[in-house]
Design a protein that fits this description.
Layout lengths: L8 E4 L2 H11 L2 E4 L3 E4 L2 E17 L2 E14 L1 E7 L9 E12 L2 E8 L4 E6 L4 E5 L4 E3 L10 H5 L1
Antiparallel strand pairs: 1-10, 2-7, 3-4, 4-5, 5-10, 5-11, 6-9, 7-8, 8-9
Length: 154
């Protein structure tokens, strides 16, 4: 039985809010087919790792993932770096989201593993995130090389 889970619903109107949102989405898996830019919006479907939700069952850690919808409004243009929308890679691993102000422009950077990136030129910052349904269990927790440096040097 999956335990009750508080679903996430957030809005970001400034860089501070967006940083908090990015923490919730770190290591999210983003299928290219779930990315759409139209009518001054950019939307993504993300399979997010639930960093704030963990259980133990029979001395084994059980983690959770959930599908999330992410909507950016006031998007003027979208630039991709390191991949093509219809290229061979089908899923990107989201590492971070941050804002860059280059007067008079505002850019939102979605940074993925393997040097991939999406840059959104926006008129103003307005982003919405919402879990789309209850999470499901997984035994796998994302790991990062910086977490294992001491093990590697031993």
């Amino acid at each position: 039985m999956i335990p009750t889970h508080k679903m996430i619903k957030m809005r970001a109107l400034d860089a501070h809010d967006l940083n908090h949102m990015a923490e919730q989405l770190r290591d999210g898996l983003c299928p290219l087919i779930g990315m759409v830019h139209e009518h001054m919006t950019f939307t993504l479907l993300i399979n997010r790792f639930c960093w704030n939700h963990e259980d133990k069952i029979a001395d084994k850690n059980i983690y959770y993932r959930s599908h999330v919808g992410l909507l950016f409004r006031h998007v003027q243009s979208v630039q991709r770096k390191g991949f093509e929308q219809h290229g061979p890679e089908r899923i990107l691993n989201l590492l971070n989201i941050h804002v860059q102000e280059e007067a008079p422009d505002t850019w939102i950077h979605l940074v993925f593993s393997n040097g991939h990136e999406i840059r959104l030129k926006v008129d103003k910052l307005e982003v919405y995130l919402s879990d789309l349904h209850d999470p499901w269990p997984t035994k796998v927790k994302p790991t990062h090389i910086h977490e294992h440096i001491s093990e590697m040097s031993a």
